[in-house]
Amino acid sequence: MNPNLLAAPIVLPLFVAALLLAVSRWGGRRRLRLQRWLTAGALTINLVVVLALAQFILDGHRLVLQMGGWQAPFGITLLADGLTAILLSLTAVVALAVLPFAIATIDLHRERMAFYPLFLLLVMGVNGAFLTGDFFNLYVFFEVLLMASFVLLTVGGQPAQTHAGIRYVVLNLLGSLVFLAAAGIAYGTLGTLNMAHMAERLDTAPMAVRVLLAGMLLVAFGGKAALFPLFFWLPSSYHTPPPAVTALFGGLLTKVGVYTLFRSFTLFFPDLLIAWQPLILGIAGATMLIGSLGAMAQPTLRRVLSFHIISHVGFMLMGLGVALQGEGLAVGFGLAAAILYMAHHMIVKTGLILAGGAVEIDMGGDRLQSIGGLVNRRPVLALLFFLSAISLAGIPPFSGFISKLSLLEITLDTRHWLVAGVSIVASILTLINVMRLWREAFWGKHEHPGRLAPHLLEAPLRRWLVLGPIAALLLLSLGLGLYGERVFQMTTTAAEQALDRAGYIAAVQPIDPESVAGPAAYPAEEGGHD
Predict the structure, then answer these.
(1) Predicted confidence (pLDDT) per residue in 67-90, tens digit
(2) Rounded to 5 degrees, what are φ and ψ at 68?
(3) In a 3-state reduction of DSSP, which class is residue 523?
């Protein structure tokens, strides 16, 4: 397969976003229709490209693109392995599912405020973070994510959005500052920021350098993943933007932080992944428990779902903690289970937030004490919300069951009884919470009928735009559960490649600058000369 395709998930959204900004001066309705169609076309092409890449890569290959023909570490490297391919595919699915819901529910004021270009820039930043093989460019894509998400969070200018946006950007900038400092230390001590080259040189680096870098990256990436105790920015901000934006954030943003933890610890610090296992599993358990308990105390639907995001990030970290362990099970089983859980969560959480957003818009609010009675008015929405909720809780035959069962199996197999017990308690609390949401929103009687907005799901086209993406994501979750063995084979391939440091380095084949002198450091011209 042509490695130049690796640039498409970055270049395509960026190009179309620039094109949308170029036509922003056109007439109102015509401009908005054009922006919607161009955005849908770009996301559809992106999905086709990443699925083609995934089909090739999950056969056991890696694909590497050296930008401009410059060999690593002199140029910029893009690399896709199984982990990258799975996350790129899920990002494309989530983005394409959220778009129709956004078209149906985002008000015209926000649409005119460069909503679709920002949507595409966010997708570009996520794709770039998954693809880059350069440490500094990972920082750059994080900042692209931060800028696009901050504007999407605050567009509309409501006071609650502004306050939440300030907290969001300040706390994430602190994480970015730690990340940038780690990049500076890495370059100063290792002399490179190419990730494969860094992995080579970290093998011989002083232990103090490795511990310092690992600790800084755990703080920086853990904060972006909303791990305990760095999670508080998420529930204070995710409930303020329109539901479509919350769904996009909930499906994608914390997963970039989890991905970078997976990539950095398996590639740079496999020895510390073992030595720090108690710390990692302790953080995972605390994150699961705090997220589940916090959800029980929240008065609104979206705050509950926001705390659930935190809780389920803990399950993913639990898989990383046992990634290099396995007694009766193969080494790498835990990481494969964590990747499967990440896939499940990206799909189901997006669908559940979309369903909750439909409830909020239809009822005129999302306070649990002020909504109810939708089971008779919106039976299809009630069914979709209920099925999405039990999938999130881990009830078979949906994807949540096999992913949680796999994580529980590896923790019990490796005798980590405490974190296994915490995961069971968190799962039970999640089930209680989502059933509470369904009971409050769909059962009982609505006490404020004057606040209803029946127009949302009355028009057939709008009804399809709202309910169609939720149903599609739910069917995908069901497919992952029914074909769990095949899906687990794919995540096992991804885990094996992520743990294969030598294979990653060999695929990039970095040149050591210290062994290259003078003009030989540059690519040789064809033909040569005397």
Answers:
(1) 888 887 888 899 999 999 999 999
(2) 75, 5
(3) coil
Rounded Cα–Cα distance for residues 329 and 318 (Å)? 16
CA angle 339, 344, 348 (to 5 degrees): 155
d(CA 419, CA 428): 14
Structure tokens that stand for 103 in this block: 């078209």
Half-sphere exposure of 186 (CA within 13 A, CB side): 29
Helix axes 82-105 and 28-57, enclosed angle (nearest 10) = 160
d(CA 135, CA 450): 54
Residue 223, phi then psi, degrees to nearest 5:
-65, -40
CB 419 within 8 A of CB 411: yes
> Which residues have C-beta within 8 Å of that of residue 208, sequence separation ≥ 6?
none
Contact 440/367 with Cβ under 8 angstroms? no
Could you read off the pLDDT of 438-448 as tens digits, one per residue? 888 788 666 55
The tokens describing 78, both together, are 């893009």
pTM of model > 0.85: yes
* 108, amino acid identity: L
**What would you report as the CA-atom Rg of the chain, rounded to the nearest whole angstrom?**
23
Name the token pair of 249: 């954030």
Three-state secondary structure string covering 301-321: HHHHHHHHHHHHHHHHHHHHH
Helix (H), strand (E), coil (C) string for 228-294: CCCCCCCCCCCCCCCHHHHHHHHHHHHHHHHHHHHHHHHHCCHHHHHHCHHHHHHHHHHHHHHHHHH
Q: CA distances (Å), 64 to each of 77, 424, 431, 509, in order?
A: 7, 40, 42, 10
Q: CB neighbours (10 Å) of residue 145?
A: 24
